[in-house]
Amino acid sequence: MWSLGLVAVELATGLPLYPGNEDYDVLKFIIETQGQPPDHVLDSGVYTEDYFIEDKDKQQRWTFKTDQQFQYETGYESLETRCIKLTSVGIVHADLKPGNIMVVNRHESPIKVKLIDFGLACPASAVIPGDFVGTVGYCAPEVMLGLPYNEASDMWSLGLVAVELATGVPLYPSENDYDYLKFIIETQGQPPDHVLDFWHHTESVSSMASSTLDKSDKNTNWGWKMTLTANYNAKIN
Predict the structure, then answer these.
(1) Which sign does the torsion angle of CA 89, 93, 98, 101 carry?
(2) Does the annotation mark 131 as catalytic?
(3) Cα separation of 194 and 171, whole Å?
(4) Which residue from 91, 223, 229, 231 puts its CA 20 to 30 A from 111's CA?
């Protein structure tokens, strides 16, 4: 009967009552003109979380997503889908960052994005540990330290891009490798020694890694520690 009423209005006026090419736009018109469905109705909706945000501390628990929130989520999902497709065929993009993400049509809803600049991309099986790829502020720690890496490194970069899309600022704002790695260690902890030992005992050691981490004295505490800023500056100058 609801659909019949909408058809009747369109036949009489020549215009749809709720114009919109996408479900979000139609639902937005309905809520603006008819009001939002009660919480107990939204609780049982299979797709409620696609269009509403739940806040259990509010009297009205479900809040309709703003245009910005909905576009962000759909844009991120589009980006995530493309990264998963690369992973499924064993390809590492190796330089995932906001500058390598393009919006297909900014007037289209939902937003669709595509990845560009595959100059560093390669099969995961062809990755060479020690080759520094990617961009400071987005590449995975294992890439910076010259460790073996795979498609998972793109997922790290995807997470950082997602944060920046949501907040408008990078999670780890860094001008150089040292600051970036320092941010990571301060917030997520230092990689275990047995992991750091790997690059120390291989021929392909990244110069950045050897300039950033120092081995502690054997007679005190045998393990890796972050190089002090002054020592790091002395090493690279």
Answers:
(1) negative
(2) no
(3) 27
(4) 91
Contact 98, 166 (CB under 8 A): no
Domain boundaries, the chain: 2-66, 68-236
Specify whether the CB–CB gap between 133 and 208 falls below 8 A: no
Average pLDDT for residues 158-186, to the nearest whole number? 89
More confident residue, 99 or 47: 99
CB 199 within 8 A of CB 209: yes
* DSSP E strand boundaries for 40-181: 52-54, 62-64, 91-92, 101-103, 113-115, 122-123
Q: What is the pLDDT of residues 55-75, one digit of tens each?
A: 877 778 888 777 777 776 677
As a whole number, mean pLDDT of residues 92-120 equals 84
The three-class DSSP label of residue 19 is: coil
User: Encoding tokens for residue 17?
Assistant: 């009552």
Catalytic residue among 43, 95, 131, 154: 95
User: In CATH, what class is 68-236?
Assistant: mainly alpha
Amino acid (1-letter code) at residue 45? G
Nearest alpha-carbon partner for 111 in 163, 65, 73, 159: 73
What number of residues does the chain have? 237
User: Is the predicted pLDDT of residue 16 greater than 70, yes or no?
Assistant: no
Q: Which amino acid is at 47?
A: Y
Say what the pLDDT of residue 221 is.
56
Give the largest CA-CA distance in the chain. Answer: 90
Q: pTM, whole model, 2 decimals?
A: 0.65
pLDDT value of position 211: 67
Compute the chain's Rg from CA coordinates: 25
